[in-house]
Design goal:
Two copies of one chain form a homodimer.
Chain A: H1 6-24, E1 29-30, H2 32-39, H3 43-51, E2 63-64, H4 65-76, E3 82-87, H5 91-97, H6 100-104, E4 107-114, E5 123-124, E6 127-128, E7 130-131, H7 135-139, E8 145-148, H8 152-164, E9 169-172, E10 185-188, H9 191-204, H10 212-215
């Protein structure tokens, strides 16, 4: 398979969410123009994004919503259940645990860790918070994705241990830049950096709107 | 001023956070190599990023940590206080309200809105949750940045009202793609899309590690 631009993968997520909503509302077909308009992109971009993965839709008839949902779920690896561990049971971690969409999309948090002795053993959503020292043991049980929600200064150390345990996908919420070796995918959700980007735009009067660069973030 | 790449602005946030930590620990100078290593980038990239904004550091002596912190705070617009409103007092909104770093960095949440009658009037962090219907009145009071943390299907409607009220910077947490007119900057924090990106990488064995594209997200 050709190397797919990361911006395409990001848009596939957006298309999938829209299509699922439409399916729930009983919509059965839609054109690339309609999908583009709802996604804030162009019909040409929609067609190009999908063309990486095969032929979808019929000229003049558009896409079958349910068929496209199934295809996108397959492409994105969302047909299986991903086993997730969360390191850091602070405010962000707690918000994540309560985020019902995660489970619906196949991301099941199976273990939660913290280093604060006062939190160890507390129960949340049917899980018991485990000491961070047991991370390696728990990850050996077959965790696919680790979410890191610890303070910035602790994050690289946690990621190093996670990677050593064989986990190949990490979602980082710590407001810092982390490094992982080849063979591991790291994504960072950095709210502080996004806010600072807004501050920068306001003082420098840089108005990016929804330009190509921003599209990657959505 | 030249158009600054958004990836540069993202790295400035990372540099600033690192430099502040170093300053807190009493470190007074550091080289571009040291800053690069801690930021997961190259010394050449550090020098290039900073060169957009002037001349920093002395050859052979490196950067003065405090001077660079001051300069970066000025460049990023972090010397002033930004007045922020939050729309959506759900789980994500609540986590944001409790995120102390925001205030320390000059982002002060001054108003919170929700459409759920059961939440209106409840107090949180010294604020009283206001009905969403009063959004326009409150924004007219001089809000700089609006954080949107409402369900996906409600987000575009809120953003349209926010933009009409004259706000030019929006941070969106709804898992959907929003559009704003020219003159407004929109940033999206989409945790679900990041997780789906990890799922995609796992099933397609695409290992991006910390490549150039990922650097934008950190």
């Amino acid at each position: 398979m050709k190397k797919i631009p990361e911006s395409t993968v990001g848009r596939l997520s957006v298309y999938l969410r829209l299509l699922r909503d439409l399916s729930d509302r009983g919509v059965t077909t839609l054109s690339s123009e309609e999908l583009a308009e709802r996604s804030g992109t162009t019909a040409a971009q929609v067609r190009k994004d999908l063309s990486f993965f095969g032929t979808f839709g019929k000229r003049g008839l558009g896409y079958s919503v349910d068929e496209l949902v199934r295809a996108l779920r397959g492409i994105m690896g969302l047909e299986k259940t991903w086993r997730v561990a969360l390191v850091g049971a602070g405010k962000i971690g707690t918000a994540l645990l309560g985020y019902q969409d995660l489970r619906r999309q196949g991301f099941v948090i199976e273990a939660v860790f913290d280093r604060d002795p006062a939190k160890i053993g507390r129960r949340w959503n049917g899980l018991s918070i485990q000491p961070e020292s047991q991370l390696e043991d728990a990850l050996a049980g077959g965790i696919d994705i680790v979410i890191v929600a610890v303070p910035a200064e602790a994050a690289q150390g946690i990621v190093d241990r996670v990677v050593k345990s064989g986990v190949r996908a990490v979602l980082n919420f710590a407001p810092t830049r982390l490094t992982v070796p080849a063979g591991v995918t790291l994504k960072t959700v950095n709210m502080a950096a996004e806010l600072e980007g807004l501050s920068y735009a306001l003082v420098n009067e840089v108005w990016r709107g929804n330009d190509a660069e921003d599209a990657r973030e959505t």
